[in-house]
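User: quick one, fold this
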Amino acid sequence: MASAGADFAICPDNTYHQAFKFLIPKSPIPWLHIAGAVAEEARQLGYGRLGILGTKYLTESDVYPEALTEFKIAREIPDEADRERINDIIFNELVNGIFPETSRLYFNEVTEKLKARGCDAVVLAAPRYR
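Assistant:
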């Protein structure tokens, strides 16, 4: 991309950011870190604790904790049962363009649980659908 004239690069997949620590030092151009961009925006909006909704791989990884720590923002993730169900919804429904009302309502329930744990905003960090 650099040889094509790009000034920077963006990876729209949250989970792939786990490999950024290996990629960034070898890249001739800077990469926009998705969780860093979220953290910066959250700080500008005055949020202090974010709930992270996404695949199990993402929510259980260091992608958001590392980025949020730099901005002194705390994070919460759903409990294990909710992480499992959200993972199933993402991979069996959302990525296939299926958006049942029951799943939307479930995400609302999990968001309310995160709000009760002190989150003032929630990030839906799910893969894009086909």
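User: anything notable?
Assistant: The chain has one domain: 34-125.
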